[in-house]
Amino acid sequence: MKLRLNAVALAAAALALGQSAWAGEAEAKKWVDNEFQPSTLSKDKQMAEMKWFIDAAKKLQAKGVKEISVVSETITTHEYESKTLAKAFEEITGIKVKHDIIQEGDVVEKLQTSMQSGKSIYDGWISDSDLIGTHYRYGKILPLSDYMAGAGKEYTNPGLDLKDFIGTSFTTAPDKKLYQLPDQQFANLYWFRADLFARKDLQDKFKAKYGYDLGVPLNWSAYEDIAEFFTNDVKQIDGKPIYGHMDYGKKDPSLGWRFTDAWLSMAGSADVGIPNGLPVDEWGIRVGADKCTPVGASVSRGGATNSPAAVYALTKYVDWMKKYAPKEATGMTFGEAGPVPAQGQIAQQIFWYTAFTADMTKQGLPVVNADGSPKWRMAPGPNGPYWKQGMQNGYQDVGSWTFFKDHDPNKTAAAWLYAQFITSKTTSLKKSIVGLTFIRDSDIHHDYFTQNANKYGGLIEFYRSPARVAWTPTGNNVPDYPKLAQLWWKNVAVAVTGEKTPQQAMDNLAEEMDQVMGRLERAGMAHCAPKLNPKGDPNKYLSDKGAPWKKLANEKPKGETIDYNKLLTAWKEGKVR
Questions:
Q1: Residue 457 near residue 436 (C-beta atoms within 8 A)
Q2: Looking at beta carbons, which pairs linking 111-118 to residues 24 or more positions away fall under 8 Å?
Q3: Exposure of 527 by Cβ count < 10 A (0-12 exposed, 13-18 middle, 19+ buried)?
Q4: pLDDT digits (tens), the chain, 577 positions
Q5: How many CA atoms lie within 13 A of 148 on its CB side?
């Protein structure tokens, strides 16, 4: 390691003197001078890092590695990687990358197929950290902690700086090993039209009706009041209808994400705990005393998937969409609903992904000012009546590099190089500017984002605040993400159509989750297989001290709001609110 670092230092010194020290310098310099700016590293340090990648790649080329294939879902960040960074990697290192971009559901399906067959379709995968519980239990995925200390040591960048990554707690399993390397992150937050909320006439009208200020809602009661106000009192802005809410409800796999992405925990259905509730998480799955063995999802087994808080969460989702969103919303998928707020007729949205930020700041949109600044802002999502301090606040997507254990070791090493290349300090700041999906603390705090924070509607302030740690992905309680995730959308859909009541829909979902976990228990797993509790009286488990929580007598307390500028001040002072 010391010799390698000395070689890097010598190369950097030679470059500083204007000498050509190594093959590939010209290609690296072209990218460093142009595309890879700005960076948290100086150009000399960027060039030294590129020198390390070239040397590592040569070892693999000598073993016959010329090309690798990797896959990720379709978002702006991954498109940039596929079109630009893969090309840079090939030009600089000589190893060609086929970086496929496919739908998220297809990534999960192909990953599941590979796990079942034991043969990985790709050399590397960017898949959600939501699968961390799956990866740990099946034993098919390579623990990166072991790899970096063992077979992958000579292919691990000495400048990787894992402590700089903000999402590694989400990709670490109960055995304390890192299984995945974060590549992009985005949270679901509250989105609202700050220009409309700032209008004195609307502020006065709202306060006269509800008795408190129009502002960022702190609880679901206030969100509902604001939704009612814009939809039924304001009704129109500039001659066009205005809606107090936006969502989607088509029977489609993306409907499942709407719920598994922490909707129940936003209502307060889980136990206290960051990154996920323990012993009961946001899916309603309880684990045993070992904090690892799933014992049930149904309230009758100690879970919370069909608990009063979960039923409340589903009820509000259906009611708000039907009362306050455009009528087309119930027939839309996630992808179809995403662009709607940018069209200018939505006043607020409780469940909005920051991955849409880049697309919501384009010149000419009805929600963007003439100077390019947004008319909208983002803030922490409001909490439901069951929510308590110390609970998960919402969801954060962490797309992360994942590798199979029993794959061609040379191909795995080359894919690991590419993974480190596109998350390196040389490239990550520019990637953050393009996609706004931060993974490094050093990027978030770079001067570029200090100077341009006003362009992003609160995104920079959020990621610099302590609030960000309470937005977390699916955690370790979920033993098989692909098998269990597919149960959600089919059950939620029948509540949207009215075929079943929210209680019936959640009862069925909880029962189906228990059935799947029962099969996993019988089949066995490498670690922490489910071991279901026997069914019992639900009242034995319902409690006011932990999940599953008893039904509240009043599920609509008085609405509470906060002035957005006060919220920003709190963030800058290091407070959550």
A1: no
A2: 111/402, 111/482, 112/482, 114/404, 115/140, 118/406
A3: middle
A4: 444 445 445 445 444 444 445 678 899 999 999 999 999 999 999 999 999 999 999 999 999 999 999 999 988 999 999 999 999 999 999 999 999 999 888 999 999 999 999 899 999 999 999 999 999 999 999 999 999 999 999 999 999 999 999 999 999 999 999 999 999 999 999 999 999 999 999 999 999 999 999 999 999 999 999 999 999 999 999 999 999 999 999 999 999 999 999 999 999 999 999 999 999 999 999 999 999 999 999 999 999 999 999 999 999 999 999 999 999 999 999 989 999 999 999 999 999 999 889 889 998 999 999 999 999 999 999 999 999 999 999 999 999 999 999 999 999 999 999 999 999 999 999 999 999 999 999 999 999 999 999 999 999 999 998 888 889 999 999 999 999 999 999 999 999 999 999 999 999 999 999 999 999 999 999 999 999 999 999 999 999 999 999 999 999 999 999 999 998 887 777 666 6
A5: 18
C-alpha distance from residue 554 to each of 222, 312, 550, 558 (Å): 15, 11, 12, 10
How far CA 241 is from CA of 203, 222, 344, in Å, comes to 19, 21, 10
Is 89 in contact with 60 (CB distance < 8 Å)?
no
Gyration radius of the chain over CA positions: 24
| Domain spanning 2-179+398-463, CATH class | alpha beta
Specify burial of residue 222 (Cβ count, 10 A radius: 0-12, 13-18, 19+). Answer: buried
> Nearest 10 degrees: CA dihedral of 360, 562, 283, 533?
170
For residue 363, what are the contacts with CB-CB under 8 A and spacing of at least 6? 372
Residue type at position 377: R
Tokens of 132: 């961390």
Is the preceding peptide bond at 279 cis, omega within 30 degrees of 0? yes
The first and second tokens of residue 141, run together, are: 């995925």
DSSP per residue, 446-469: SHHHHHHGGGTTTHHHHHHSGGGG
Report pTM.
0.91
- CA 317 to CA 496: how far, in whole Å? 9
C-alpha dihedral sign at 106, 333, 499, 264: positive
Spatial contact of 508 and 271, defined as CB atoms under 8 Å apart = no
Q: How far apart are CA 83 and CA 538, in angstroms?
A: 53
First to last CA, the chain: 45
Domain boundary assignment for the chain: 2-179+398-463, 191-251+323-396
Residue 312 contacts by C-beta under 8 Å, 6 or more apart in sequence? 267, 384, 385, 386, 555
Q: State the sign of the Cα–Cα–Cα–Cα dihedral 397, 307, 550, 321.
A: positive
> Residue 208's CB: how many other CB atoms inside 10 A?
8
Report DSSP letters for 178-218, one per residue: B--EEEEEEEEEEEEEHHHHT-HHHHHHHHHHHSS--SEES
Find out whether 485 and 261 touch, Cβ atoms under 8 Å. no
C-alpha dist (Å) from residue 423 to 85, 99, 331, 416: 10, 15, 37, 11
